[in-house]
Amino acid sequence: MLVKLDLDTLQQRRKNARLVFLFKIVRGMVPAIDSVNYLTPITNKRKIIPKSRPNSESSNIVEKFCINHSNCFKTKNPKNQQYKNSFFVKTIHDWNALDNIAVCANTVESFKSALTGRD
Fold first, then answer.
1. Per DSSP, what are the bridge partners of residue 48?
2. pTM of the full predicted structure?
3. How far is 117 from 119, CA to CA, in rounded Å?
4. Which of 10, 28, 55, 114 sits between 20 and 30 A of 18, alpha carbons compared?
5. DSSP classification of residue 86
6. What is the pLDDT of residues 62-89, one digit of tens each?
7. Rounded to the nearest 5°, which phi and psi values hold at 74?
8. Within its chain, how far is the Cα of 20 from the centroid?
9. Residue 100 forms part of a structural domain
10. Confidence class of residue 119 from pLDDT cuts 50, 70 and 90?
């Protein structure tokens, strides 16, 4: 049914919603959350791109420190499972793995279309 309706999985839709919310925080569209208090930009501009194989599951340590663009943020080292699954820790990891086209989008709509890969 997902293929017939051209929908993403629920897991992918939740990930996209988290990334859109972080995009709004970074751009200052959420006045209640100041990005300076929660996000620390990475000053090192060296790209770190982990190698991955399609349809394979791995626990590559380099994936945690992935840097694909110039607007990456430092990730915290979670000590327990609850903190590991918190919004900023989980979403910053996904944010740093995005490509530069998505991160440099001007509007929320263009960011969403860059995430889904559809026009």
1. 67
2. 0.76
3. 7
4. 55
5. S
6. 555 566 677 888 887 888 888 888 999 8
7. -70, 140
8. 9
9. yes
10. very low
d(CA 91, CA 110): 19
Residue 73, SS3 per DSSP: strand
- Largest Cα–Cα separation, the chain: 45
Tokens 């509007």 correspond to: 107
Q: CA-to-CA distance for 47 and 58, rounded, in angstroms?
A: 20
Q: Structural domain of residue 20, as residue ranges?
A: 9-47+60-116
Whether residue 54 lies inside any domain: the answer is no
- Where are the alpha helices (H) located in the chain, listed in sequence order? 2-5, 10-26, 35-38, 81-84, 87-96, 100-103, 108-116
In a domain, 2, yes or no: no
Number of domains in the chain: 1
Structure tokens at 40: 């620390």
Decide if 29 is inside a domain.
yes
Contact between 108 and 20 under an 8 Å Cβ cutoff? The reply is yes
